[in-house]
Design goal:
The complex is a heterodimer. Helix content of chain A is about 30%, strand content about 30%. Chain A is elongated, with a radius of gyration of 17 Å. Chain A has 3 helices and 3 strands, in the order E-H-E-H-E-H. By secondary structure, chain A is an alpha+beta fold. Chain B has a single domain, classed as 3-Layer(aba) Sandwich (Rossmann fold), CATH 3.40.50. In chain B, helix 1 packs across helix 5. The chains are: A alpha+beta, B alpha/beta.
Chain lengths: ~80, ~240
């Protein structure tokens, strides 16, 4: 069994106020070396059988990401046998 | 004239939208998200609220509700549709309107009475106003920041499809102060503030919201018999 991971990120040109808020909080932790923070979303999909990348792409394009403001990236993650059992 | 008001799980303002339509003189038909039948209504309001708990993105799940499939077809055929707040978000997610509504730039939920300038009076929902008219209606959202690429924004401006703009302060960071837009045909309008909350002196800051509902009744009355606004919808 394999898991398909979809990473959804705001397009670079779209303002990310959440990321900015986090970036602005970092100096309070004493961190001054970070120049930018952007926040996205990670979605894990498990197929009953073999992972169907075509279907995963369709799910990502039609539902998980809004192509007007977001980009997505799909990766297949092989799970170790122990986790499958 | 029969105006349908859709209720999704998590809709909040369906009751007020129905009341506003009734006060304007319409017969109201309550529509249910799980029912694909539009019951022959002459226009539809998608109300505000938090459909499906705003899961994933505001409006992203509602877009796939059975009622939305029929509504998308009818809207493309000319049926007047007004999306308010979450309804606007749903219309954008359904690609019936361009752009997207994102997190308010300042990250705060904004709830106040808001001045708008009505810029387009040729839509099905704004013909009762005069161009440039300032109106005061409540705004209440956390994700009302309208964004689109520059080309789309220029197109909206060039084609007179910016229906209303925020004045005396932009409550959410929307690009070019956009509060409401319309599709090319002018039958589908999305607005972030809430006209349905400004229809009675007792509860609203003004009666300015009523104009959206009287507009659609006027547009429908002027439409050719048996047809819809843009003439494409057959029932």
């Amino acid at each position: 069994m394999a898991r398909v991971v979809v990473d959804v990120m705001l397009k670079p040109e779209i303002l990310d106020p959440q990321g900015q808020a986090v970036a602005n909080a970092l100096p309070r932790l004493g961190v001054t070396s970070v120049s930018s923070v952007r926040i996205g979303r990670r979605i894990e999909i498990e197929f009953a059988g073999e992972p169907d990348l075509e279907t995963a792409r369709e799910i990502a394009d039609k539902l998980l990401a809004n192509p007007v403001i977001e980009d997505f990236h799909i990766t297949v993650v092989e799970q170790p046998a122990a986790e499958v059992a | 004239m029969r105006i349908g008001v859709v209720t999704f799980p998590g809709s909040l303002d369906d009751g007020d939208a129905a009341r506003a339509a009734r006060i304007a003189g319409a017969e109201v038909v309550r529509l249910w998200h799980g029912d694909a039948d539009l019951h022959g209504v002459d226009a539809v309001v998608l109300p505000g609220g938090f459909s499906y708990g705003d899961a994933l993105r505001c409006g992203a799940i509602a877009r796939f509700a059975p009622v939305m499939e029929s509504l998308a077809d009818a809207a493309r055929g000319g049926l007047p549709v007004l999306g308010i707040c979450n309804g606007f978000q749903i219309l954008c997610e359904a690609h019936l309107l361009p752009g997207a509504l994102t997190r308010n730039q300042h990250l705060h939920f904004r709830n106040r009475d808001q001045f708008l300038r009505v810029e387009s009076t040729s839509t099905a929902w704004t013909n009762a106003f005069t161009a440039g008219q300032e109106i005061l209606i409540p705004v209440k959202n956390g994700e009302g920041c309208f964004v689109a690429d520059e080309r789309t924004l220029d197109e909206l401006e060039g084609e007179g499809r910016v229906v209303a703009r925020y004045t005396h302060g932009n409550p959410n960071g929307s690009q070019r102060d956009i509060a409401a837009i319309t599709n090319e045909a002018g039958n589908v309008v999305g607005i972030m503030p809430h006209p349905e909350h400004a229809v009675e002196a007792l509860t609203g800051p003004s009666l300015d919201g009523l104009g959206f509902f009287t507009s659609v009744l006027r547009a429908l009355a002027g439409a050719p018999a048996g047809g819809q606004l843009a003439g494409g919808q057959s029932r």
